[in-house]
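Re: Re: token formats

Sure, here are both.
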Amino acid sequence: MMNKVPIVFAFDNNLVLPAAVCISSLLTSARADTYYDIFILHANDEDIDKTLLNRVETHFSNCKISYRSVPDTFKEGFEIRGITIAAYYRLLIPELIPEYDKVIYSDVDVVFRQDLSHIYFQTDLGDCYIAGVNNLAHLDADLNHHYGATLGLDTRSVICSGFLLMDCKRIKADGLVEKFIEQSKNKYKFQDQDILNICCRGRIKMLPPKYSLLTYISFMAINRPKELVQVWSAEDIAEAMTAGNIHYNGQKPWRGACINFDIWWEYYRKSPVYDQKYYFDFFYGKLNELDSLPLVKRLKILARYFIYGKSKS
């Protein structure tokens, strides 16, 4: 018997390649009895290029990929830092995916190294609307000010919106989608993430970091470990670093060198969308860039390998 897990992604044609790698990693890391019902949200006026995504769906037998067009609800939505309107689409999931009472949402700048059936079936949300990974806002001066002084939130309870477990039934029943839409008219610095933390405050469940290993969690694990163990146990941090799902929420590995960028390229190389020339051109073009790294950055790269070990994916 297969365990069917619904998971939703939202992106435009600019992110089709990383989306294909992301979904490929999800399916590669799945247990033998896990089947993913995958939904892709896209603008109703954009025809998503399905060439690479079809290749992924054909290659793997443990999934189905469906597409849902999104109305222009957020056409006036605030855009910042190059993050487009598609970021708001996750706020409509309870209405766009009515066949499930509970779903997982993920960004596509992610490599999955964990099966998600356990979190989907075993996580008790209680009376919470959503669950996500702590954003560590209280450990960053700018984030602490933004969420604390500006938005009036408890900065120790803010989550990143890049990976969510959503109780769609409860969100719909309590009219939160309408509140999400209303809040989207404001110019929030972190867009959908701010809206979710505001509207769901007090009813957000915290997940361990292995479900969304943000770039700065990796950075802090190496450079500021004493601060990190104030949030999670050393065991949780170690598991996240060695086998957690990596969320490249800063520099993107397909664009340049960043922490854990080699792991993304490992999954790309093993994916059904691998192109030898694209792979070669990236690394050949980055040789001078890598050679010019200062000593401190080289030592940090070495530290990741010798302290945490190279990915065995």
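Second one below.
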Amino acid sequence: MLRRIGPTPVDTPGDAAPGTVRDGRLVVEDLDAVELARRFGTPLHVISEARVRHNARRFASAFARGWPHGPVEILPAFKACPVLAVRRVLTAEGMGCDVFGAAELRAALDCGVPGPAISLNGPAKDRALLGRAIRAGARITLDDPAELGALRAAIADAGAGATATVRLRLRPDYTALAAPSAFEADGRPVAESAHAYKAGIPPEQATDLARALLAEPGVDLAGVMVHLGRHRADLATWAAMADRVAAVTAELVAALDGWRPRELDVGGGFATPRDPLVRGPEHDGDLAALAPDVDEYAEVLTAALGDGLTARGVAPRGMTLQVEPGRALHADAGLHLTTVLGVKRTRRPTPRTWVQTDTSEAFLMDTLVEGNRWPVLVAGRAATVAVERVDVVGCSCGFDVLVE
């Protein structure tokens, strides 16, 4: 069953996706993209409210179908789209929120997200941040045993009767995952890439920290959290990662003699069907799906997680499954509009053509962070077949290559 943790949703004005081509022109919910650019200027981010609502509902229904053991809570990552208007839409859809740091916690609360529907993540959380989370009733995901001292102080600051709802962020053993990670240009396997990632409590420290929390006044150790991450789009890798989550959870349960998690948070990182992280030059001009959709991810992940727990003697019955989608919820809900300033060519020593625009990679940060390759269309001639390969570039003084 799906646990709705926000207000009742309002009616959706339709589920038209951005990127619809009508009479050769790009439209967003019946609005012409060229006219939007003229009205508001460029560069311009355009987000479809209808698609955000549609995606939120698909995530909720997909995971609710796959997890019959207990409630499901969807906690979209604030960092994936830190736009207050979008966050208010998600609140209206009954979504909780994954937040990182004091600014995101404040923004989520200001946007009406109930405190108990917030998952506070991030490293080295200080006394003040933990105190605000406790007062709001937010869940606190500990990332390091070193945070315990600040947690104790924050509980004391909150006064008599205060309780901190805490989960442990665990680091599963992915050693067996030898397929190359999409995050690594040199073909390093998922295991090596995941184990190099800083987040999470090392396995050799998790049991001692859990015992300390169980003995700590004012602490409710509610569950565990693992961020699966978008290392690969294929379902087999996601099934294997989910099984490893079940394994590390079962190991903690066995070590604690009687404790079992009420909440199991699997984070996010799901690919989207046209995910730019898995696009290559061979996909330019093709908007076909390159990755599974949320229904397939939900089916595979929940089955592997439930079966993995059961096989290791941990009954998932009654456990709340939490999911923290980020770009998978937003990626097909928006467009970035930019105006072509000119076309520049050179023939020597290497032939090259640059389409110069008024935007920048600074506004499309995953170009820099993860090497995303964005699908590109000419908004006023969206059905026209391309006849030449070019570099689409921004207007800054850096290389600023949006799509090579």
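The longest strand covers residues 219-225. The chain has twelve helices and 17 strands.
- S.
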